[in-house]
Design goal:
By secondary structure, the chain is mostly helical. It has a single domain, classed as Helix Hairpins (Orthogonal Bundle), CATH 1.10.287.70. It has 4 helices and 2 strands, in the order H-H-E-H-E-H. The termini are far apart.
Length: 143
């Protein structure tokens, strides 16, 4: 359980760092480069999408380490151990989609559960950031 907790904490910290740095970069970029609101929104959404994608890959790597190196459990069902399957289970967990054809066992369940929580948190953070940035733009355009 300690190894699963450590992997979850390390991966979660990396995910938060990626997300924070992406939003910091977007904020700095927005201050130094004036562009139309629609173009800025498009850039922001694509940058946040890229950050979320990287975060899914980070969790997929954490699941790989947990299963293949530390043997903390297994991923049963339609899972063959390929990188594609690690990415798929990570994406399903991160988005809280939960199809269920790949099922974690053992301490892998803890990591997968926290991935869902982190994904929900990161998506909410992205939404709040986007609304905050757009509110600034809308207010600036009204003045």
């Amino acid at each position: 359980m300690l190894a699963a907790t450590a992997i979850t904490a390390i991966v979660s910290a990396l995910v938060i760092l990626v997300h924070f740095e992406t939003m910091s970069w977007l904020t700095k970029f927005g201050r130094t480069h004036r562009m139309p609101t629609r173009l800025g929104l498009l850039l922001g959404v694509f940058a946040l999408f890229a950050a979320h994608s990287l975060e899914v890959w980070i969790f997929a790597g954490g699941l790989y380490v947990a299963r293949e190196i530390f043997a903390l459990g297994d991923l049963t069902g339609a899972f063959d151990g390929s990188a594609e399957d690690y990415l798929y289970i990570s994406l399903v967990n991160y988005t809280t989609l939960g199809y269920g054809e790949i099922v974690p066992t053992g301490h892998m369940r803890t990591i997968c559960g926290f991935e869902a929580l982190m994904g929900l948190l990161m998506m909410a953070w992205s939404a709040a950031f986007t609304v905050f940035r757009l509110t600034d733009r809308w207010r600036a355009n009204l003045d």
